[in-house]
Amino acid sequence: MIDCTLVAQVTDLHIGFDRGNPHELNVRRLNLVIDQLNAMRPKPSLLLVTGDLVENGDDRDAYRHMKALIGRWDGRVAWAIGNHDDRTIFRELFPDVETDPDGFIQYELDHCGLRWIILDTLDAGRHGGMICARRAGWLKARLAERTKVRTVIVLHHPPVDTGIDWMSALSCEAWVKRLDRVIKPARQVVGMIAGHVHRPIATSFAGRPLAVCASTAPVLALDLEDIDPKHPDGRPLILGDPPSFALHYWNGERLLTHFEIAGPRHVLASYDNNLQPMIRDMLRERGTG
To answer: Which of 45, 137, 215, 248 has the most beta carbons within 10 angstroms of its beta carbon?
Structure first.
């Protein structure tokens, strides 16, 4: 059964990290996630793939391999690009993905009773994000066209201070200010979705909820202490925790996000006769049991 109110997200795939190895770790991790999404009941009706699709933007073979891996997902797909991607090569290999008049990978789609606007935050040659004046103008015009349609903004880079010194955007950055000015007055925006940080984060931006999905590639260690670029201190940076994805649920009033991992789990309790009374009582308390 497909649930039209449920949208899945994967991000930061980094296929081709071990260039030329079709069985690299990032491939195996992505396959675990796709397997789990395909087996879900109910099943999401859309898969958002939100950037850093490959490790090296000039690696056409990695893009082709990544496209085949995502092709194992049995459903609709929407694409965004990140700082590891190459806009020109992406457009060459994904000609069906829409662009705005300036060639940025920006477009919108209607799904799940919402309008989803995908933004292009790639700033070639930099790790950090960018919304230039042209991209901001495109978004402002799109939001002005359909002010009554509830909208979700999808982008690779979260425009917020994550508390992780080297993986943050600051409120003083021009692109962050530019995006804030566009989104803040747009009352139809009900939420934002991002990736990039390789960790799950729940926060807000411009007065809207912002959910940051963790990566299918290895995850970022949580360390909120400032980092000194001149003195490596041996702290952990990347962890081998299970690959992650997100599920975004729209109930007609608000967007709710679950963060999940893929792979084998150690089940401590199941819904059996022993736990049936608890479930029955909890549902009865709210009047639905």
So the answer is: 215
